[in-house]
Amino acid sequence: MVKKILCQGYLWLLLLLLYAPIFIIMIYSFTEAKVLGNWTGFSTKLYSSLFTTGTHHSLTNALINTLTIALIAATVSTLLGSITAIGIFNLRARSRKVIGFVNNIPILNGDIIIGISLFLLFVSLGIPQGYTTVVLAHITFCTPYVILSVLPRLKQMNPNIYEAALDLGATPMQALRKVIIPEILPGMISGFMLAVTLSIDDFAVTVFTIGNEGLETLSTYIYADARKGGLTPELRPLSTIIFILVLVLLIIINRRSSKKKEA
């Protein structure tokens, strides 16, 4: 009984430490105070100011850039990662281990190492830094995570299904589209969501590949804003909205997956 209480207490303490900062930001997004922690009364002015056209043009541009880069990078990395995972799965055991080890290296490496490496690569190739290099960089570090998300689904799949489809007259492309992809689709969706999250959250890789053309993402905008001595108050409602959207999306996906398991 005591052990159970201690375990539950530890769990709730851990959850409190993880989510308390987020809840504090959510609470103070409903006040006009410029400094976090200074409550000046309930107000939704920050939300209205956030969506007022032209009020925070640079913040709006940073948000749009962040979302478009994340969606493009996640889509491309999901396609590349899924195809690569299928290729790795069909290799011999020794080759599969070697390629799997190589795939894990970018994940284990620090973001700053990947950022510097890509920066030197783009400079040596003479590629001007900007929107394109940021997208390429995000695709590069997101793809290994997609591979790790798809591989377990391939291992769970019955390999005889693909061969049966070929025996019944399907072409390899038809078997891939109608047999393999439906089997690995949950892994692809998980990899896509993980890639979107990693892209939105990334700072180290972005700051090394963003160049000096004035392009900004949320992470670089917040960093530059913090260096000025404070954060724009509208970042609080923006963070709240992003958190709620991600939470709702996760709840919907989890409910759909649980319904499929029950069915």
Description:
- Its main location: membrane.
- Belongs to the binding-protein-dependent transport system permease family. CysTW subfamily.
- There is one protein chain.
- The chain is mainly alpha-helical and 263 residues long.
- The protein has one domain (57-247): MetI-like (MetI-like fold).
- The protein has 11 helices and no strands.
- The chain has helices at 2-28, 45-50, 57-89, 93-108, 111-125, 131-156, 159-167, 172-201, 204-209, 218-227, 235-262.
- Helix 1 packs across helix 11 and helix 6 crosses helix 8.
- The protein is globular, with a radius of gyration of 22 Å.
Query: How many domains make up the coordinates?
Result: 1
By DSSP, the count of extended strands is 0
Strand content: under 5%
- Radius of gyration, in Å, reads 22 Å
Low-confidence stretches: none
Layout of SSEs?
Layout: H1 2-28, H2 45-50, H3 57-89, H4 93-108, H5 111-125, H6 131-156, H7 159-167, H8 172-201, H9 204-209, H10 218-227, H11 235-262
Helix pairs in contact: 1-11, 3-6, 3-8, 3-10, 4-6, 6-8, 7-8
What can be said about this structure in brief?
It is a multi-pass membrane protein. Belongs to the binding-protein-dependent transport system permease family. CysTW subfamily. This protein has 263 residues and is an all-alpha fold.
Descriptive tags:
globular; 263 residues; MetI-like fold; 11 helices; mainly alpha
